[in-house]
Specification:
Blueprint (H helix, E strand, L loop, with lengths): L6 H17 L3 H21 L6 H13 L6 H15 L11 H13 L11 H11 L5 H16 L3 H5 L6 E6 L2 E6 L4
Antiparallel strand pairs: 1-2
Helix pairs in contact: 2-4, 3-4, 3-5, 4-5, 6-7
Length: 186
Amino acid sequence: LLKFITHDGLMCLERDVKAWIRANTPANTTRAYSTYSRQYTEFARSKGLNPVESVTLCAFMKDAVERPRPLSRSTIVKVIPSAVADMYRYDEHSPTDSELVRQAKKVAKRLTAPSVPRKPVSKAQLLEMVVLATADPSEMEVRDMFMLVLMFLGFLRESEVVCLRVQDVWLDKLGGRDVLMVFDVG
């Protein structure tokens, strides 16, 4: 016996699936995008522009370049378009799908200074942080420093480290050396 979902039922199911996907998107991505999504929406509202139109996104990027304190190149060229694309991810039309936006990115790239790459934390700096944090440490300070070292050496995100359980981390021998084993099932 075949059952067919009504149009309203299908729309409800689609809304539930979208909400589920958004609810399970990494928090750091959601946080970064929400800032610029809000700014974009407010910009469009304040100018009386339709946020679905590519020209609105270009005007917002132009505004970000021409501010007294312009946003960084990578924010204007990468983060803002990604945030706006995320807003319209499930729509048939996204403001980012336009030659106008591609050209605006090129102009913004020419008009802004290149981002200064961050220098990686050196082993000496990491050791200095450990020494400073462990002068007279509380259990919480030891835990926090261990998590910092684990993130640094294990290339883990904060969200991945805080989800680890006691049984996910242990000391073992490997080739005659003591090693820290980390097993993340997340």
